[in-house]
User: What shape does this take?
Amino acid sequence: MKIGRLTISDRASAGIYADRSGPEIENVLREFLGSGVQFEPLIVPDEVELISAALRRLADERKRDVTPEATRAVLEKELPGFGEIMRAQSFARVKTAVLSRAVAGTRGACLIVNLPGKPTAVRECLEILAPAIIEGLAHLRGENPHEQKQNGGRK
Assistant: This one.
């Protein structure tokens, strides 16, 4: 895990004294998050423009989980129920699933669904989404999914 750590201090940024609060933040977070955490420390003076620029740099340039934003950029219609049910399904077993930013929707006749990265979670989510995926794809193809069921799946 990478964490941007920003210290705002006129004197520490000028080298007048050492930043002691920043390293303490790292020590405390390592106690909670483990030793595998990597920090990107920044020290800036107490100036709005410099603080804003540092926050933008840490958030925009270092952020790697951009799949939901990229997906939303191409969707014509978002289907929020897909993400909602995946979070609800996963939350029953993993309480941090509420942090998931799963996105789904359509573009033209395509159904786009962001799935979790863990293989067991992929299976669990796809199994619960299967009826909605089948019906959604039928609608996207202009078919009547209820008519297909009555005809034994033939059209």
